[in-house]
Amino acid sequence: MNKVYNNRAWWLILPMLLLVAFSAIIPLMTVVNYSVQDVFDANTRFFTGTEWFREMLNDPALHAALLRQFAFSLTVLAIEVPLGIGIALIMPKKGWQASAVLILVTMPLLIPWNVVGSIWQIFTRGDIGLMGWSLRELGYGYNITASPVDAWATIILMDVWHWTPLIALLCYSGLRSIPDAYYQAARIDRASKWSVFRYIQLPKLTNVLVIGVLLRFMHSFMIYAEPFVLTGGGPGNSTTFLSQSLTTMAIGQQDLGPSAAFSLIYFLIILLVSWVFYTAIMNMQKDHKNEEA
Amino acid sequence: MAEITLKSLAHSYLATPASPEDYAIREMNHVWHQGGAYALLGPSGCGKSTLLNIISGLLEPSSGDVLFDGERVNSLPPEARNIAQVFQFPVIYDTMTVYDNLAFPLRNVKTPEARVRERVMEVADVLELTGQLRRKAKNLTADEKQKVSMGRGLVRDDVSAILFDEPLTVIDPQLKWKLRRKLKEIHQRFNLTMVYVTHDQLEASTFADKIAVMYEGQVVQFGTPRELFERPNHTFVGYFIGSPGMNFLEVSTRDDRVMAGETPIAVGPRLREAVAGARSRNVKLGIRPEFIEVSGEPVEGGMEAVVEHAQDLGTYSILYLRLGEYAVKARIEEDQEPPEGRAYLRFPDNHVGLYVDEYRVETNHE
Amino acid sequence: MSLILENIDRVVGGATHIEGVQLELKPGSFNVLLGRTLSGKTTLMRLMAGLDAPTRGRVLMDGEDVTGRSVRQRNVSMVYQQFINYPGLSVYDNIASPLKLAKVERREIDRRVREIAEMLHIEHLLARLPLELSGGQQQRTAMGRALVKDADVVLFDEPLVNLDYKLREEFREELRAVFSERNCIAVYATTEPAEALALGGNTAVLHEGRLLQYGRTEDVYHRPRDILTAEMFSEPPINIVRGIISGSEVTFDKRLHFPLNDELRSLPPGEYRFGVRASHLSLTPRAKDDIEVKMTVDLAEISGSETFLHVHNDLFNMTVHLEGVHEFAVDAPVTLYFPTHKVYAFDRQGAVVHIPTHLGGI
Q1: ipTM for the whole predicted complex goes beyond 0.95
Q2: Which of A128, B86, B289, C81 is the most buried (most CB within 10 A)?
Q3: According to DSSP H, which parts of chain B are helical?
Q4: C-contacting chains (≥3 CB pairs under 8 Å)
Q5: Which domains does chain B possess?
Q6: Domains in chain A with CATH codes
Q7: Which candidate from B43, B244, B290 shows the least CB-CB separation from C169?
Q8: Of C217, C232, C247, which one is at a domain's C-terminal end?
Q9: What's the pTM value of the predicted model, to 2 decimals?
Q10: Interchain contact C16–A (C-beta under 8 A)
Q11: For residues A144 and B250, which has the higher predicted lDDT (pLDDT)?
């Protein structure tokens, strides 16, 4: 082996480094900068160290928002993932029906976030909204501006309606890539429908599900526009999630220092949870090599 | 136990087939006997995959019957037939261990665990998978995976036939012959009917005791590898089996001589009579390159041919010859010096086949 | 047009793909690159095409250094394993595409496309789209595209692996005929020794990025320079037996003795590896000095007109190549005749020290 060493290749990644610096590192550093200072105006600022971080971590309002946020994200994942898989399984596989259903399923994904909020806001109104009106006619005192339960249920329903199609589409493409021979072999092995799902379809879906779950988690953890339009975070604070608390603090109250510290904590939480998800799922797939020994 | 009978079987993918060309399988009758090692050999598009799907139950034939031990199974789904299938690409259950893969078909019919264990251990032993039983199936090599998919058929007591669909496609060339041997061993040990579908003459002849050669939706010959080589029943078999394939000369008789175009062909009297008596204009003589006697000097009864090219294939050479207007190939062994310019050919009568309308006609010249 | 590779190395990310290859291809020659997967065949072709540049060494075309010149500035064409055509263009337009790029005049394009199509027997398919064709016809189209532009070098990277064996047989014959009338250099990569023999011309045997031997195909086959070449260029594999030559006899694996014959008498005493081709072993005695060995059948592989018999005993595993179809039961006993006058001998370094006299000796 006569290896040739030189470091010229590093120049090739320089443009990429610069790009990343401008798009991610510099804005992030600005936030870090704010998070350790108390800014009064352009010329008056004090170094505060970790004070904002401590304050944020001890803020009961934020604790509540964080809890609500987790409750919301886990609930929508728990509903959307199985539902998405289920829809993918019953979607027709060929012919014009397949195309028609595909278009139908994709529809909600094409609607912008704030428009989704507006649609549902109208949809749930007791006087002119189809859902609100129907529920009232059926005798249920439905009111999202007064009942936290109604507000929660509606937001979850809205998110499920908006985002289950994403999981369904990912799974559908995953299912399409399974060769027919697998199904034939399973029939010959006299496997039940459940076994086919458990041992053929689900394992082959793992990869797309990892992507789906991560995307959905990050998305739902950052949810902002829809509840903002639909409930404005109410009634009370019952549907105020993290991003809305942050916005209120940063823009509404101009508390740049605390909100910067809060942003960083928020960012780290998302990073941590995504990493945990990813490692957990990847570990499930590994062969337990030690068992063989 | 299974004897698989195909009775007046035909299949077309069209709703209303009009001409014979519309059929993927043209009407045929065929029997695979219990315990035989068979191959279904043919080029792509000959209908062998269609036939395989009909036998395994993935496809219902448009007409005729599929009988398993005399019982009509036309519309029975694969799971209701006692067959197993090994596919071109190994089908294994990724997340399961090798043990669980092998146990799967038994557990699906609620076999007691003790019995499952007994069968799995036995089959793993035969397939030399005992050491791998606790590994995840997806980490195996291609040949091990293929053994696992075969094993899932072997564990079942009720399986009486295994269908193989080009099972060695993804196997490393150096390992192929070992797996071929394994297949033969399994056939001898388990009393199973095995049907091996392939387009490769080596795969078919090595595995099978009897080969069905398919061509344009029909079985044109059903015979041992030796019969296919020495007495091909159809011009297609002559062409398809052997490398290079059989030489064919279109012949007729003129002035009491057998002529290929303008060239007289030296054959014995029986063959000459048979050519003269043929009731068709499509009459051919076929002889394999291996059986042509080649000489560099004029010989008694030798036909003069032009040597166009000699290709040394290491163990032997192929001579590319021109006999009148026909291209003829002849094989000569390593110790024979290839003739240059002209060669003199003799066709030994017992190795010349007469083909009328593409099918062999026996002339009883032996 | 000649093509010379001068002491070429190709190193990618610290791994050596090609090492010290020295090769001169003559104008109008047909050359086979024979080697197993990852032996460097494709890498070498990419260097010849100018798709990659060598880490060390020079590439000369007609004496001119073209080492750094890109594929666009060289007149080469390539045919791949996969049937690569423009799916949206008809067969005619596919074949015409290189000429259109070269701005050849319309009438001339038409003439050459039809000429090539006729040569490749696809003249009746010119109006079709590639995906409506069979695999063989698709590959013919791809070959048409490679041949139409009168390239100086035409490279084939295992073009027949995805076709069945009858089509392969036909293609090989046609290729030989096509190139016998052309003055370009053809380079054809394959993993199969039988294919190299069927194509004829010259063969370069590659192993782990090194060139083992280059010469006329029959010569390389019959007269390998070393044991590795003999092993790489044999199908079924050449049988190798370790042995010792002492005063008056040869001993195989310390157990099987036989007297030295004229063939091997000139070799000095010592340790050797002896090679015998599968086709030289026999089930019937052919010469007085054949040694009789009792063996057990592992498997008879039958290839339509030939039989490859795998046998073993407690000393060695052997493969025998028999003409015609012979059926053997697994584990059946057979008697093998080992031709002592048809063996190759290799010294401890693997260099050939004896070639059977009937193949020219050494």
Answers
A1: no
A2: B86
A3: 48-56, 98-107, 113-127, 142-154, 173-189, 201-207, 225-230, 235-240, 269-277
A4: A, B
A5: 4-224 (3.40.50.300), 243-361 (2.40.50.140)
A6: 30-285 (1.10.3720.10)
A7: B244
A8: C232
A9: 0.83
A10: yes
A11: B250
